[in-house]
Amino acid sequence: MRLVKIIVIMALFTSLVYSVKEVVPIKYVRIEGAFQYISKDEIKAVLEPLVDVGFFDADVQTIQDTLTQLVWVESVKVNRVWPDALAIKIKEKRPYVRWGDEALVNNRGEIISPKDIEPFTNLPILYGPEGQQVKSLEIMKGVNTALADQAMQMAEFSINNRWAWKIKLTTGLEILLGRNDQLKKLQRFMKTLDVLGREQVNAMAVVDLRYPNGYAVSWKPNAQIIDWKNLPAAQAANR
């Protein structure tokens, strides 16, 4: 008799569970996150067909995977909140530089491909070999640090398929570094800046550092070119 009662109770419990699953819809979806590029309408359009189900029927993993596929979504965490809600925490991607002419990368080198890149023209641009955005970005960061020590601001950094480097500053100055000992050559150039003076540096159009013991300069039109012969001996020795 006791066994019969237990079986009846279990049957009633199972029936109750299935009834609850059928009658408890999702009433609330709470979205947490600081968004600059993700629109609420975009999230809503993705979520609506996935949450129009019972509380227990919502596929948390599918919701997470679907939201992660959005261009600006970096990570998603989805939790059920009893009795009728879902809590969704979204972390948005942050662009660090432009990657070529049609994409962006974040500070870890992950590619972001928005429909319109025009709003991000204020960011520096990085050109590098296809599929090498992570390595290219790390190199760019190191070069940027060296430039910042001299209050120079990078506009473009290029690495070609032969791994030759080229820098373009916001002033328009181009610095050619070649394929070997690039950071060493850049530091050597930096050491001459105090000798040259800011006015002379601003008059430069191109600095070619692809020489073992010096560099060549192309000047902007109508630039007042430095007279090396009249430099003090100590300064001339350091150029």
What do these coordinates show?
- The protein has 239 residues and is an alpha/beta fold.
- It folds into 2 domains: 24-92, Ubiquitin-like (UB roll); 97-238, 3-Layer(aba) Sandwich (Rossmann fold).
- It is built from 8 helices and 12 strands.
- It has helices at residues 2-23, 40-51, 60-68, 133-148, 182-191, 193-196, 198-202, 233-238; strands at residues 28-32, 73-81, 85-92, 97-99, 103-105, 111-112, 125-127, 154-159, 165-169, 174-178, 204-208, 216-219.
- Strands 6-5-4-7-8-9-10-11-12 form a 9-stranded mixed beta sheet.
- Strand 4 and strand 5 form a beta hairpin.
- Helix 2 packs antiparallel against helix 3 (60-68).
- The protein is elongated.
- Residues 3-21 and 233-239 have low confidence and may be disordered.
Spatial order of the strands forming the largest sheet:
6-5-4-7-8-9-10-11-12
Give the rounded overall mean pLDDT. 86
What is the helix content?
Answer: 25-40%
CATH class of the largest domain: Alpha Beta
CATH architecture grouping of the largest domain: 3-Layer(aba) Sandwich
Largest sheet geometry: 9 strands, mixed
> What is the number of helical segments per DSSP (H or I, 4+ residues)?
8
Number of self-contained structural domains:
2
Our Rg estimate from Cα atoms comes to 30 Å
Shape: elongated
Sequence stretches where pLDDT stays below 50 over 5 or more residues = 3-21, 233-239
User: What is the CA-CA span between the terminal residues?
Assistant: 104 Å
Q: What do we call the CATH homologous superfamily of the largest domain? A: Cell division protein FtsQ/DivIB
> What is the H/E string?
HEHHEEEEEEHEEEHHHEEH
Strand content: 15-25%
CATH topology term of the largest domain:
Rossmann fold
Q: Count the E strands.
A: 12
- What oligomerization state is this entry in? single chain
Q: What class would the helix/strand composition place it in?
A: alpha/beta
